[in-house]
Specification:
By secondary structure, the chain is mainly beta. The protein has 2 domains: 2-59, no CATH class; 77-459, Porin, CATH 2.40.160. Helix content is 10%, strand content 44%. It has helices at residues 2-41, 44-47; strands at residues 77-93, 119-123, 128-136, 140-149, 163-173, 176-184, 209-218, 223-230, 244-249, 260-265, 273-281, 290-301, 316-329, 334-344, 366-376, 384-394, 410-425, 428-441, 446-459. The strands form 2 sheets. Strands 1-3-4-5-6-7-8-11-12-13-14-15-16-17-18-19 form a 16-stranded antiparallel beta barrel. The longest helix is centred in the first third of the chain and has 40 residues, at 2-41.
Length: 460
């Protein structure tokens, strides 16, 4: 088609040149012949009117902000791979087991609620669709991922819009890689294997998917380190018409020196988290063992609470995290995995919504979290069995006087689960799971609730 269009373009120019020759004489004909030759030599994107030339390798860098087509096509090999999961979960909850995210009905478990109402549902929201693009020249590698699920903030079962899960690009050169975009939390990166969508959120596991810039380096065969800057993408400044205030002191020697003024600002989450992780992976007799340590820190000004005189201007908050992760095979078929962490003001960045501060006094809350799991895969059997336990224990002294969030904040949240997974055929699976949750709220009330899941899913 390209060649045909070039020929017709050349013929048209030649005819035009011939017409001009008749009226212009030999010199004009020679000039027009030269122009026809020039047109024939133009690149196809100009001859055919194919649109603006975005980039030529020899012409230097010229980027088009709205362009989607690849502009480097030489010197590397690339592929685009769609992937996903189609899943249906049948869920029975004995006691409103999702009080911390009621907009999701009982799509997943968070705590044992105060309401003694049993519910059941069929839930397709954990279906996932993604596209992965890879490119390499043998030395440099690029991997891009865009992934969505259907856990958007809506309880309208007839209209489940897609929700962005991942959107990142990873560049690798030798032993160093750079990830930029929305990806899983890089610190405290180990997760349990239960079926429930919350993967032990509020129950001892610290996780989230966050916009970030993360640099990883493989020091040797066993040791990998990373540093990261990450931030939950939704701020608080648009919430509830609140304006932040920050006390500032006038320097001595200036007019009004020593006095305190109040400067308003509208972004309570001014700084991202800065974090690091160092991980050891065993080889030889330690094959399958992984040990990692993580740290994280962020300073920010908290949002005020409307009508709360104690907390109306917000507070300066230091949020920090230290933690460790361990995976260790106990035998050929039995493996232990788990993590433990301690921190202060750990909130949305770690799937702990509204648990970072005392919402009455504004004080940061310290907490100890952890989980452990045993996984067993019998020899010669397609079945996998899991059993695990997790806990999230905020410091009770930090929650003294909390009355604002009596139905939101807890003194202790614990969970136990037992899971069975069996492949049916190829990548089609069946799973069954039992969870028991124990929750003590800031009102000192204690409740226990059970959740039963049966799931089928197809990974493609």
């Amino acid at each position: 088609m390209v060649k045909t269009l070039r020929v017709w373009g050349a013929v048209s120019v030649a005819l035009l040149a011939g017409a001009l020759v008749v009226g212009a004489g030999p010199v004009a004909a020679q000039e027009q012949k030269t122009e026809a030759q020039k047109v024939e030599e133009l690149p196809p994107e100009q001859v055919e009117g194919a649109g603006q030339l975005v980039r030529k390798e020899e012409a230097g860098v010229h980027l088009c902000a709205g362009c989607l087509s690849a502009i480097y096509t030489e010197g590397s090999k690339g592929s685009i791979t769609p992937y996903g999961r189609i899943e249906l979960d049948a869920i029975y909850s004995s006691r409103n087991n999702n009080p911390l995210d009621p907009g999701q009905f009982n799509g997943y478990a968070t705590a044992a609620g105060k309401g003694n109402n049993a519910t059941a549902t069929l839930n397709p929201r954990y279906s996932v669709f993604g596209i992965r693009a890879d490119r390499t020249d043998g030395k440099h590698t690029l991997t891009g991922v865009v992934e969505v699920d259907f856990y958007g903030q809506t309880d309208n079962a007839g209209n489940l819009p897609p929700r962005l899960r991942l959107a990142n690009v990873k560049y690798t050169n030798d032993k160093t890689s750079l990830t930029a975009g929305m990806d899983w939390t890089p610190i405290m990166a180990l997760h349990p294997d239960l079926i429930d969508f919350s993967i032990m959120g509020y129950g001892g596991n610290l996780w989230q998917r966050l916009p970030q810039v993360t640099v990883r380096h493989q020091f040797n065969q066993n040791l990998e380190g990373l540093v990261t800057v990450m931030r939950f993408e939704r701020g608080l400044s648009a919430c509830c018409g609140n304006t932040q205030t920050r006390p500032t002191t006038v320097p001595s020697g200036q007019v009004g020196g020593g006095a305190t003024n109040v400067a308003p600002f509208n972004d309570p989450v001014q700084n991202p988290y800065y974090g690091g992780r160092l991980a050891y992976s065993g080889t030889g007799t330690m094959q399958g063992t992984m040990l990692a340590a993580s740290v994280g820190y962020r300073y920010y000004r908290s949002a005020p609470i409307t009508g709360n005189a104690t907390f109306q201007s917000g507070r300066d908050i230091n949020s920090y995290l230290v933690g460790a992760e361990l995976v260790h095979p106990l035998s050929k078929n039995l493996k232990f995995s788990g993590e433990v962490a301690y921190g202060q003001a750990l909130g949305v960045e770690f799937f702990r919504f509204n648990q970072e501060l005392n919402l009455t006094t504004g004080q940061p809350i310290r907490t100890l979290v952890g989980w452990g799991q045993m996984s067993y895969a019998p020899s010669g059997s397609p079945n996998t069995f899991l059993v695990g336990y997790g806990f999230d224990n905020p410091n009770k002294n930090d929650l003294n006087g909390s009355t604002t969030a009596a139905n939101i904040q807890y003194l202790s949240n614990q969970r136990m689960y037992a899971t069975w997974v069996r492949p049916i055929w190829a990548d089609f699976y069946f799973g069954a799971e039992f969870q028991n949750l124990w929750t003590q709220w800031t009102t000192m009330e204690r409740f226990s609730g059970q959740q039963y899941n049966m799931s089928v899913w197809y990974n493609f």
